[in-house]
Amino acid sequence: AETDKTEANRVHGCESLVWLVAELVDGQWRFKASSDARLLRGLLALLLVRVQGLTSQELARLDLREWFTQLGLERQLSPSRSNGLHAVLQRMAELASTR
After folding, report:
1. 3-state SS of 10-76?
2. How far are the Cα atoms of 9, 63, 94, 97, 98 from residue 81, in angstroms, in the given order?
3. With 90 as the cut, is the pLDDT of residue 85 above it?
4. Catalytic residue (choose from 7, 11, 14, 56)
5. CB-based contacts of 37: which residues, under 8 Å, 6+ apart?
């Protein structure tokens, strides 16, 4: 939602604007994310499918680079795009470690 696109929800470390909202429900994480870049919105959708419903411990153990390699996407992403997605995952882990 447009109301979620605030500085407090912004993920830093991405070239594009990315916003992330997290909610812990019964010990499982629910995330919403958006970006100003179309390609990144698609990649975020893939990432959200992978992380929805994980516990904090599962989220901390997730190896995003390995998962993208398994999907055949790691070699398709530019270094800056890959770094941006890793910044999103790192922000997810930070949010999970504070609750």
Report:
1. ECCCCCCCEEEEEEEECCEEEEEEEECCHHHHHHHHHHHHHHCCCCHHHHHHCCHHHHHHHHCCHHH
2. 19, 16, 20, 25, 26
3. no
4. 14
5. 16, 17
> What tokens appear for 79 in the block?
């270094």
Show the CA angle centred on residue 80, arms to residues 74 and 81, nearest 5°: 50
In percent, the amount of the chain with pLDDT more than 70 equals 99
Q: What is the number of alpha carbons within 13 Å of residue 91 lying toward its C-beta? A: 24
Q: pLDDT (tens digit, 9 = 90+) per residue, 52-77?
A: 999 998 988 888 778 888 988 878 88
Three-state secondary structure call for residue 99? coil
Residue 90 annotated as catalytic: no
Q: Does residue 18 surpass a pLDDT of 90?
A: yes
Q: What is the pLDDT of residue 66?
A: 87
Name residue 70's amino acid: Q
Cross-strand bridge partners of residue 25: 28
